Amino acid sequence: MENKQQSNSTMKENNAVKKKVNWSGSLIVASLTGAFGSSFLYGYNLSVVNAPAGYIKKFYNETWEKRYGFSVDEGTLTLLWSITVSIFAIGGLVGAIIVTPIVKFFGRKCTLVLNNVFAVAAALLMSLSLLAGSFEMLILGRIIMGVDAGISLSALPMYLSEISPKEIRGSLGQVTAIFICIGVFTGQVLGLPEIFGQESRWPFLFGAIIVPSLIQAVILPFLPESPRYLLLEKHNTSKAEKAFQRFLGKDDVSHEIEEVLAESRVQRNTKMVSVLQLLRTRAVRWQIVTVVVTMGCYQLCGLNAIWYYTNNIFSESGINRETIPYVTLSTGAVETLAAVFSGLVIERLGRRPLLIGGFGLMIVFFSVLTVSLTLQSTVHWLPYLSIFCILAIIASFCIGPGGIPFVLTGEFFQQSQRPAAFMIAGTVNWLSNFAVGLLFPFIQAGLQTYCFLVFAGICFAGATYLFFVLPETKNKTFHEISQAFAKRNKVTLEMQEMKHYPGERKSSEEQESNFTSSVDNGETKKGIV
User: Fold this and answer.
1) Which stretches does the entry tag as region Disordered (predicted)?
2) CATH topology of 24-223 equal to that of 273-494?
């Protein structure tokens, strides 16, 4: 009876803790500032090249003619433009590959701050290319901007997952996706003819990249580093405690530090795991496969194809070509609203329903869009159905597949494994991005409107896999999520850790000893101001 009362008391205390979780000022500023100078710029650079495409091609042709005395042929011009657009993904791949040693040495926050060097350098190169008469500067700027995006899309989700309480980890993680969408929408707005979408003004579209970068570089240094990084990798209990206090908005953070130390005891190791070591670790085999599937589907599910078809569909529905850029803003607005909706409900509905449901809805609307595009020349109202399907596909993508893969990558892996995991996720992400850009024109040429059935098939495969494999990670610690996968990996966590990291528990025991002494001396209870 006494045990039952104690159990009920513990449950009430846990529920009380969950209700008391607040979005502290430091947590909000860190997430918004981090995303504004990182994922926002990724989204912005996805859309910013669309509006001035004609002017940039004209600039390429004029530069070529000044140098060589004749106009560039159509094939070479198309090749130069394709390189300009697709080389962004190559830079992203480079950034994803080099991010692991950078976040290990500099930390999560400092990596985001230093990454602005790439963004500023890229912005200067691209914005001054017209003045210098060098299209090579624009291409070089695009690849450097890709490096910035590759680093930030790994470092930002890592940082957000490590500074947030588990009760709001999903909502905070969705900030990455929300700012990608806001970046895409901002690129569309600034590309309007009334703003920078003119022949004399298009360099300002690239110069604007400096603004978010400088804002992040000024504000982020005054915010704490990831407390998990400080505690488990730098073994600095005092700084980790201060970071927890600022991010959680309370003085007593003994429970949070003990939770992190418990993870450290399970790991028996705080040394960083390489990509090869991670791939060989049986205890995370299905986590890695799941990350590869979600990141692959994130790029291969067909959203890029939607952007390709949008202008044609709007034109065929009777919308004036001069009006299309303004109508296209609706796609960016829907994308942003859907991402915000996902961030608001992810902690209530969970990751599984939003991710699987998003892919499921995309399957339905891709199928309807295929029928609509095939028959729209015979029925006058079908182009409007096509427009609706485009907006519905974008919304379906953004409520789940558009952001949750980044959240899951941060949730699946222990501290020592996380940088290598994000390197794998980033590599898959950018390779898939490049593959879509390279292969889609051939798929579209061969299958015409039926190409969307290919994407529906990819969404179906992803949703089926996730339905059978993905556990719900809402409100779970990193250790609890690892336990959820342990049965599928056919290994107990204790056996696996002892097998891979024998006799390396000293550092975590020393941290625990230091923390216990701190509690005994009343330091943690009093707090550090």
Assistant:
1) 500-529
2) yes
* The CATH fold of domain 24-223: Growth Hormone; Chain: A; (1.20.1250)
Residues in contact with 445: Cβ distance below 8 Å, sequence separation at least 6, in sequence order? none
- Are 335 and 398 in contact, with CB atoms under 8 Å apart? yes
DSSP result, 293-352? HHHHHHHHTSHHHHHHHHHHHHHHTT--TTTHHHHHHHHHHHHHHHHHHHHHHHHHH-HH
CATH code linked to domain 273-494: 1.20.1250.20
The fraction of the chain above a pLDDT of 90, given in percent, is 48
**Taking residues 430-442, what's their average pLDDT?**
82
- What is the token pair recorded at 431? 């390779």
451 pLDDT above the threshold of 60: yes
- pTM more than 0.85: no
Pick the residue with more confidence: 45 or 524?
Answer: 45
Cα angle for residues 350, 494, 164 (degrees, 5° grid):
35
What is the C-alpha to C-alpha distance for residues 52 and 150, in angstroms, rounded to an integer?
Answer: 24
Q: How far apart are CA 287 and CA 486, in angstroms?
A: 10
How long is the chain?
529
